[in-house]
Amino acid sequence: MDMMHVRVISPAASTARVEALLAGDEAVVHVIVVPGAARSPAGDLVEFDVVREGATDVLDALRGLGLDHDGAIVMENVDAALSSAARRAARRVPGLGVDAVVWQELEEKTGEETQLSWSYVVFMIVATVIASIGVLLDQPILIVGSMVVGPEFGPLAAVCVGIVQRRGRLVRRSTVTLVVGFAVGMAVTVLTTWLLTAAGLVDSSMLLAERPLTDFIWRPDALSWVVGFLAGIAGMLSLTSAKAGTLVGVLISVTTVPAAANAAVAIAYGVGHEAAGSTLQLVINLVAIVVAGVLTLLVQLIAGRHAGRRRTELGTVRR
Fold first, then answer.
1. What distance in Å separates the CA atoms of residue 4 and residue 25, rounded to the nearest whole number?
2. Domains of the chain by start residue, with CATH
3. Would you give the distance in Å from CA 202 to the centre of its chain?
4. In the chain, % of residues over pLDDT 90
5. Which of 26, 78, 104, 254 has the most C-beta neighbours closer than 10 Å?
6. What is the Cα 133 distance to its own chain's centre?
């Protein structure tokens, strides 16, 4: 079963309402109340477990009591729970925990990805430079390496969440992070290409030569959209699924960072048509990922609302 552990700091005046809310929800088990235990902020400590398929409604109700402002709400995933009560809750609540999206958790995860941090910029630079060398050497292994290092899916996912949740500020911050990251990565790659050329390690003939293994990067076609779209679905499911692991390698088939690197190298050597093709490839993949991510989230949102209605209906029947 898939569960979340929630720790709440509740002002003493609100604790009775919190207890009543939790007692009336079939998704909640293992409730613990310790009066006066919290010090910062001051209040009562309330802990409980909730099956993932019912977590969003419970967390929304807690936020409705103002606990995210007057107290605190902390969530973490439960790796394993040996509990008959938990198994009964999982059977009672409609839906599958592995498919459930806990929107509050998703918002927090993607919100962190909108920050234009030094580590994000450095990862983008490293990924783009690695890809540029892979382009010149026609080495797919370096292209794959750059995709693994590239950090661009974080802000792309945040754009998708912002669109679905109608949070314009999140979309703007994420877009700025993406644009600045790619711009800086490409600018440093242009400079690096010039330096490597001056050192005699690379030259323009390497870009102009036949590159059967990597020339797809600057030759976009219909399949570019298909691959980007499928990767967007996989990436979003990886982010929302309770069973998903790390995002490393999720976008292994998408030419975002490699396309930006190819464009930068082409700019450095003044090869206009290849720079234009690479830029188009980049745009196609970014748009495809966002469209796929938004559609995936919308499907999950609709499915979650349907499960919520079923849960309400079943709860009414049982009462």
1. 15
2. 3-99 (3.30.70.260), 107-304 (1.20.1080)
3. 36
4. 51
5. 254
6. 28
Tokens of 170: 């999140």
State the pLDDT at residue 252: 53
What pLDDT is recorded for position 301? Answer: 83
Q: How far is CA 155 from the centre of its chain?
A: 7
Question: So what's the pLDDT on residue 82?
Answer: 86
Residue 175's alpha-carbon distances to 112, 196, 230, 244, 254, in angstroms, are 14, 31, 21, 25, 19
3 state SS of 50 = strand
Amino acid of residue 302: I
**76: enclosing H helix or E strand:** strand 72-78
CA angle 160, 251, 51 (to 5 degrees): 60
* Owner of token pair 């995936």: 296
Look at residue 104 in the predicted model and tell me its pLDDT: 80
Tracing tokens 């969003």 back to the chain, one arrives at 56
| 292 contacts 250 by C-beta, under 8 angstroms | no
Is this prediction's pTM over 0.85?
no
